[in-house]
Amino acid sequence: MHSMGTILVSMTARSTEPAWSPDGKYIVFTSQVFGEPAHIWRINADGSDLVNLTEGQQGTFKSPAWSPISGQGMRIAYSQSKDGYGYIWTMQADGSDKRQITSDPNFYDDQPDWSPDGNTLVFQRSGSAVFGDIYKVSAQGGSGTPLVAGTPLALTQSSPKWSPDGRLIAFLSKHQGGEREQIWTIRADGTGLVQRTNETLFLSDPNWIVTAQ
Asked: Is the pTM of this model over 0.85?
């Protein structure tokens, strides 16, 4: 038997990138009305209390990601696109206490994801001599450091996702050529690169499954 899905949000807009909060109470997502900038919205899990969290902040916003810490310390990382550049920000679950994490105008930073301890963000950086590499930065802010130091991978890397145990980061890459991007993993210290798929189909948005113990 198949159950019908429930419409959670009914907006005259393109809504994408839904993400559950760690405590299961909220969902954040990106929504864009045609001709207007995209914003980050939050809604209760039952479909009530729809709130634009980035209203009043200049730019276009996307890629919301919850910190792994529930309660008062729970924050949302997201990317801001402004004047052709991209920056990583974080905010509290109600949209308050917005903090700019990266600020170098030579780069476009996007697709943030949190380490399991909430201390570090991994993200995609492009621009200047960087063509889409995976970087890390303190959740308190900083300049960012490449995950693969010294000898960055060729071509574009994207969609980084930290494993729940903090050991690995999964991402998409076509750095060894081929027709399609594949899923790779690398240790959080930038070593131990492993190709996990060899598909002829298009792949996107790798994520981790947490199983009950």
From this structure: yes
